[in-house]
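Q: My labmate handed me this sequence with no annotations at all. I'd like to see what the chain might look like in three dimensions before we decide whether it's worth expressing. Could you predict it?
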Amino acid sequence: MCVALFLIWDMLYNHGDATAKAVREVHRIVRMVTD
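A: Here is what I predict for the chain of 35 residues:
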């Protein structure tokens, strides 16, 4: 529920910017771990 609210808020006020940053961070960490 909390995550859904955050995503909706992010889309409305940041146009998905915070979500995109979080996704990029996760990808970066996964790459570091898997390399």
